[in-house]
Amino acid sequence: MPQTQSKKELFLAACRFEPVDRVPVWIMRQAGRYLPEYQAVRAKHTFLEICKTPELAAEVSLQPLRVLDVDAVIVFSDILIVAEAMGLPLDVPDSGPVLSNPVRDAAAVARLRAFDPTRETRFVGDAIRGICREAGPDVPVIGFAAAPWTLACYMIEGQTRGDISRAKKMLREEPEVVRALLARIATATAGYVAAQIEAGANVVQLFDTWASGLTAEEYEEFELPATQQIIDSLPFPRSTGSTAGREVVKILFAKGSALHLENMAKSGADVLSVDSATDLAEARRKLGCKIALQGNVDSNVLLGEEEEIGTAVRAAIEKTGGVGHILNLGHGILPNTPVENARFFVESARRVAVAAPAQP
């Protein structure tokens, strides 16, 4: 079928369960180390210099659009920018991010500060404005932030290398301190993401990498209210029809999504982005046609042969019929992924036929 929809029309239609020419596709962490174009910029600038220099952030954000022809551009930034703005000094060496003065008690939570995202993190909004100018009105631009529990884990641990035991201990032993921290994070994040929307983002995504460390009960008691606080506060709710005014899609990604799917559906998000361990067909069965899905090809598949990539793409799309579905990976693209494989992943999505949408 010849494509008649622009990338933005395609993306928004998928979020509304409306007919699409094909399944839209982008890749989490699509601007980054696997791209030679990014490596060339990174050779001259530190990671934080790129994040905080709007022209550089816009340039590396746009590279996957030019190289892979993805259907959306996500701003290049880091989820810990909010933690730094709240008062925790941030460094990002090659070994991974480090936050000084981690939050270990109620007094540390009380010392966290509110910030004005139009001033103190204006570089993110300026990068989005630059992306919008370059990409034009027909390409959706994605802003993002960490979900509250994930940012809290980094703020409590000071760094994470797969270990959030201190954060889990605090959750068990000092639940009210964690609850207060999550509320402070949610308030700061809501303003931060709203500023990205005002700068031109059509889509915002919350990343909840460490949701996998929560039980379903802990997620419902602690993380869900904080996530709802952010989503409920955002301007421009998603419209229910393509003729309405400006709309902004809210996506919630969680690692460990199979355990939290029902709670995630209560968040107010328009799209749930699920990890590779979550079966898309089962997720659609549970959610029906009211919340779109994003995902969920295993990132490791892109290290294999084209046949394997094509098979995984077809399998993912067939599980949803290609309706109410944005194709993506189940987590970020791996740094050693061959560029040609990433390009083939995007191209493969365009070869799979989609079904007629079911009635919501």
Describe this structure in words.
The chain has about 350 residues and is of the alpha/beta class. It has a single domain, classed as TIM Barrel, CATH 3.20.20. It is built from 15 helices and nine strands. It has a seven-stranded parallel sheet, sandwiched between helices. Helix 13 links the parallel strand 7 and strand 8. Helix 7 runs parallel beside helix 10. The longest helix has 25 residues. The protein is globular, with a radius of gyration of 19 Å. The two termini are about 25 Å apart. About 50% of the residues are buried. About 0% of the residues have low confidence.
Give the H and E element order. Answer: HHHHEHEEHHEHHHEHEHEHEHEH
Strand order of the largest sheet: 1-4-5-6-7-8-9
CATH topology group: TIM Barrel
Radius of gyration: 19 Å
Which term fits the overall shape?
Answer: globular
Number of helices: 15
Give the oligomer, counting copies of the same chain as homo and different chains as hetero.
single chain
Largest sheet: 7 strands, parallel
| Mean pLDDT over all positions | 94
Secondary structure class reads alpha/beta
State the end-to-end CA separation: 24 Å
The portion of residues forming beta strands comes to 5-15%
CATH architecture: Alpha-Beta Barrel
Report the uncertain regions.
239-244
CATH class: Alpha Beta
Number of domains: 1
Q: How many DSSP-defined strands?
A: 9
**Overall helicity:** 40-55%
In short:
By secondary structure, the protein is of the alpha/beta class. The chain is 46% helix and 9% strand. It has a single domain, classed as TIM Barrel (Alpha-Beta Barrel).
